[in-house]
Amino acid sequence: CALILLPNLHPIRFQIVLFFIFYSFFLQILLKYAILILPNNEVDFMVTHCCAASTQILINPTYGKPDYLAKYFEELRQMVKFKKWFFGHYHENRNVTAEEIMLYEQIIRIN
Predict the structure, then answer these.
(1) N or C: which end of the chain has fewer CB within 10 A?
(2) Is the separation of the CB atoms in 96 and 59 below 8 Å?
(3) End-to-end CA distance of the chain
(4) What does pTM read for this prediction?
(5) Taking the CA of residue 44 as centre, how many other CA atoms within 13 Å lie in the half-sphere pointing to its CB?
């Protein structure tokens, strides 16, 4: 285990940063294994803040290189069959594809 010292970071804040790094890694592993036990890897809806890397390209090809989370969601997109994927982050309301819906201020009913 390595200790990384960040200048001017309060010890409690440092612990919070470490917690979120560990928590996000743990959650990522947990989600990947949880998907394996889904019947036929199918869900009705996926709700996330960001979207998959390939969806980002559809939204705007000039976004550049996808970040770590977008790459992770791309892995999920390839593994999971879903009816709809709702996400925000881009501050726009629109259907990117028939299955992928970007929401910002819009409120929709899910049946």
Answers:
(1) N
(2) yes
(3) 47
(4) 0.68
(5) 2
